[in-house]
């Protein structure tokens, strides 16, 4: 069984923000795989299904970004999932819109949702897909930027990244993550 987590903030006011691209990928996969997100345990909204013969859980933590680990780790513990069966998808300031980057370990890089997951898991060694949102213009605070909406010209790039992230997640169900990294990071 594999767990795919998309990071974001609950609530309509955050739905279209840069910080919620992880939620967007989970919505995309939910639609693609016909996995309804209807269960509300472990401080998250999740659904289970089978894709290409692999049992899958899709999770959107409902804890708000900074407490994401409080939803991820209890669900992992309940289903007895090892870290290598976890994939976290989230926004990345250090990548331009239109880019995704896969990694199997590393620091939080200043991302509070990732800090929470690393703290609660007790390790930095788990799979992740970082989705580029770019950096704010000079003078705009990072918080305002990540909680802001994409510019109209960025939207096609974001839609493409959501689709690519979904393709990478699906490939991971059948191939080792390192192989998926080698394909999608080139």
Write the layout of secondary structure elements.
Blueprint: E1 2-6, H1 21-33, E2 44-51, E3 54-61, H2 69-78, E4 86-92, E5 100-103, H3 112-121, E6 127-132, H4 142-146, H5 155-172, H6 177-184
Parallel strand pairs: 1-3, 1-4, 4-6
Antiparallel strand pairs: 2-3, 5-6
Helix pairs in contact: 1-5, 2-3, 5-6
Summarize this, please?
With 186 residues, the protein is α/β, with parallel strands linked by helices. A six-stranded mixed beta sheet has the order 2-3-1-4-6-5, sandwiched between helices.
Description of the molecule:
This protein has 186 residues and is an alpha/beta fold. The chain has one domain: Peptidyl-tRNA hydrolase (Rossmann fold, 3-Layer(aba) Sandwich). The protein has helices spanning 21-33, 69-78, 112-121, 142-146, 155-172, 177-184; strands at residues 2-6, 44-51, 54-61, 86-92, 100-103, 127-132. Strand 2 (44-51) and strand 3 (54-61) form a beta hairpin. Helix 5 (155-172) runs antiparallel to helix 6 (177-184). The chain is globular, with a radius of gyration of 15 Å.
């Amino acid at each position: 069984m594999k767990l795919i987590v998309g990071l974001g903030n609950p609530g309509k006011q955050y739905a279209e923000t840069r910080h919620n691209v992880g939620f967007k990928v989970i919505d995309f996969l939910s639609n693609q795989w016909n996995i309804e997100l209807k269960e509300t345990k472990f401080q998250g909204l999740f659904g289970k299904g089978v894709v290409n013969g692999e049992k899958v859980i899709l999770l959107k933590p409902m804890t708000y970004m900074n407490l994401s680990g409080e939803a991820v780790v209890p669900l992992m513990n309940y289903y007895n999932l090892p870290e290598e069966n976890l994939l976290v998808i989230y926004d990345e300031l250090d990548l331009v819109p239109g880019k995704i980057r896969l990694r199997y370990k590393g620091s939080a890089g200043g991302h509070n949702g990732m800090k929470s997951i690393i703290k609660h898991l007790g390790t930095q060694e788990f799979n992740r897909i970082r989705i580029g949102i770019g950096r704010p213009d000079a003078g705009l605070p990072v918080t305002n930027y990540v909680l802001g909406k994409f510019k109209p010209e960025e939207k096609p790039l974001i839609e493409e990244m959501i689709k690519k992230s979904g393709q990478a997640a699906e490939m991971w169900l059948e191939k080792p993550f390192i192989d998926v990294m080698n394909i999608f990071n080139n």
